[in-house]
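Workshop exercise sheet. Pairs work together: one partner reads the sequence aloud, the other fills in the structure field after running the prediction. Swap roles for the next sheet.
Pair: D.N. / O.F.
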Amino acid sequence: MKIQIHTTPAALGESAGAEAAMLIKKAVQEKGFANIILATGTSQFATLERLLQDTDIDWSKITMFHLDEYIGLPITHPASFRKYLKERFIEKVPSLKAYYLIDAETDPVGTCAALGELIKNHPIDVALAGIGENGHLAFNDPPANFDTVEPYIIVDLDEACRKQQWGEGWFESLEAVPKQAISMSVKQILKSKHIICSVPDERKAAAVKNSLENEISNLVPASILKTHPHCSMHLDEASAMLLNK
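Structure field:
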């Protein structure tokens, strides 16, 4: 794992986005296409912004998947990750070859099966990710399932995760945060050739420390990233503040 500590969240996003752009262009150059995974949430704002600034990416050769979505939440809701990606990414790259969003409104089981078959035929070149305050990876909250080979799974969201979503302003109350979601599984995320993890903010500092300095455990799901051969962890000074110097 390559760990980079940046002075500000903006500098973090600049570096992570530039790395993602470079790797995507490299995949297209080598194969003629690229398959990517995009993450959502406040941690990804600057990274996605920088990625979109690269005018040399041929988006007509890129297929996009994403990590997770709340069960039962309509796409019109401010917290919908489909809404997030449509507004912050998809509408800005109209030439995008294809994108597969997680529709968890009506048939979560069917959605998991359909997306699972799709992603099996689209090996991922570059995955963007983050870490939750509880150490989750995507919506794989502790204790995460490290064993399932299913690409997409239905998961229960723990209270710490739901409090984070409320605290970030996506929901008007804790009670409004859904208790379940569809998440890309840990094994599926780890199949990505490259993983770029953007983790700004002091409130993530404990999760960063536990993920990087403690043993690998499904009680700190993001700790599994240490097993990946090509994972870059981009931190800012606040999220890195608890790390042993």
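Discussion prompt: Residues 2-236 form a domain with the Rossmann fold fold (CATH 3.40.50.1360). What would you look at next?
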